[in-house]
Amino acid sequence: MSNPVSHSIQAVRGMNDILPEQAGYWQWLEGCVQNVLTLYGYAEIRLPMVEKTELFLRTLGEVTDIVEKEMYTFADRNGDSLTLRPEGTAGCVRAAIENGLLHNQLQRLWYKGPMFRHERPQQGRYRQFYQIGVETFGMTGPDIDAELILITARLWRMLGVHDHLVLHLNSLGTSQARAAYRATLVAYFSAHVEQLDADSVRRLHTNPLRILDSKNPQMQALIAGAPQLLEYLDDESRAHFARLCAVLDATDVAYVVNPRLVRGLDYYGKTVFEWVTNSLGAQGTVCAGGRYDVLVEELGGKPTPAAGFAMGVERLVALLMDAGVAPPVTASHAYMVVAGEAAEQQAMVLAETVRDAIPHLQLTVNCGGGSFKSQFKKADRSGARYALLLGEDEMMRGEIGIKSLRATQRDGLVRDQSQQFIAQRDLVETLLKIIEE
Ligand code: ATP
Ligand code: MG
């Protein structure tokens, strides 16, 4: 019987289906983020998932993980090199410049959607993953850095995961300060070159700061002994950082200054931060961001200060589940059980009538027939509070049955598990009464 040709096709490795049982978490999370951002005055921007490869080559830095080995790059039919976006900041800056959003304007923008990186798939690390990103333009001071962090802190409180997250904070200083530090760091690691792993040897002269970010346990002692960037900071960056910390202190946001926090991308300077949890194993960073004052100019715009962050939706959903936080459940109102051909048509007519009259009504009509028993089972499984019953008898009498499926009705009209029959023309009025309870 089995046909060797018709084997089933599987999803691409590292690219996940988000099934309905998880979608509730996603919707709740996305809804909360959108609410908070709207309240703080941020506007959504929707960006393409594909950009010219050049955009990422120019912005991310040649010796970053993403550009070295993670980009999904392909030739378009006319030969243009295109890339599935590995992150959102570059595209957002490109769009802001291209559409003139930055001329003497302050911008607070956010976006969400899938990002693509050819990484080794594992828990919390996928090849298609979702980010919600926030970018601000035109604001130089630590006030906006603080606002970005306060937004995330408020979000964690709303979601009930604030106890699971620690804020790591650092300043990368200006590019001059980083250059001076870089020389010191290269000297330090060069003196211990026999303790470096292959990745770090490679980075020693290309991107030595990234060695600090190594997750290799064998490297941790060496890294702990390395000179610290904060000691090399220029005065302006030092003052900026101090003012940011003062706002966080005054608003009761706890943080740890982590001198090894460098972020993977080249465009960051001054403030960088990450929210990290212990609950998710090695992939514990759920949100990361910082200031990138040089990027707009690098992409051909007028010099414009900027700061932003991105959160990883899969990791946040995993954290919600791990923390036992569930989205609020809203039971559906009613499930309509239908028997007989005549009833099938009338069910549709009645359902549309009550949907017109009660726009927020959550009503599922049984489709595809089935015995009363199997339909009631479906009604139960649907989580609906009431079953509406339309069979041949009800059709003949112009009535419809209502049965409570949950044991918590305060309303006098419908008792637990009992069944009532009402005239079909009274259905709207009756439903209104019982669903408002
Ligand atoms: P990591 O150090 O974990 O690789 P990153 O520095 O590469 O993270 P960013 O580019 O800062 O990550 O992206 C911001 C957030 O997006 C991360 O903190 C994480 O929550 C999420 N993220 C990044 N890469 C992935 C991935 N491959 N799969 C799932 N989530 C990811
Ligand atoms: Mg990464």
Q: Helices and strands in order, then pairings?
A:
Elements: H1 20-39, E1 43-44, E2 50-52, H2 53-60, H3 65-70, E3 72-75, E4 81-84, H4 89-98, E5 107-116, E6 128-137, H5 142-159, E7 165-171, H6 175-191, H7 198-203, H8 220-224, H9 235-250, E8 256-257, E9 271-277, E10 285-291, H10 295-298, E11 306-312, H11 313-322, E12 334-338, H12 341-357, E13 363-365, H13 372-381, E14 386-390, H14 392-397, E15 399-404, E16 419-423, H15 427-435
Parallel strand pairs: 1-5, 7-8, 12-13, 12-14
Antiparallel strand pairs: 2-4, 3-4, 5-6, 6-11, 7-9, 9-10, 10-11, 14-15, 15-16
Helix pairs in contact: 1-5, 1-11, 5-9
The structure holds adenosine-5'-triphosphate and magnesium ion.
List keywords for this structure.
437 residues; 20% strand; binds magnesium ion; binds adenosine-5'-triphosphate; 8-stranded mixed beta sheet; alpha+beta; 5-stranded mixed beta sheet
Can you put this structure into words, describing what you see?
- It is a single chain.
- By secondary structure, the chain is of the alpha+beta class.
- The chain contains 15 helices and 16 strands.
- It has helices at residues 20-39, 53-60, 65-70, 89-98, 142-159, 175-191, 198-203, 220-224, 235-250, 295-298, 313-322, 341-357, 372-381, 392-397, 427-435, and strands at 43-44, 50-52, 72-75, 81-84, 107-116, 128-137, 165-171, 256-257, 271-277, 285-291, 306-312, 334-338, 363-365, 386-390, 399-404, 419-423.
- The strands form three sheets. The protein has an eight-stranded mixed β-sheet. The protein has a five-stranded mixed β-sheet with strand order 13-12-14-15-16, sandwiched between helices.
- Helix 1 (20-39) runs antiparallel to helix 5.
- The radius of gyration is 28 Å and the shape is elongated.
- Bound molecules: adenosine-5'-triphosphate (ATP) and magnesium ion.
- The site of magnesium ion (MG) has 2 residues, from loops.
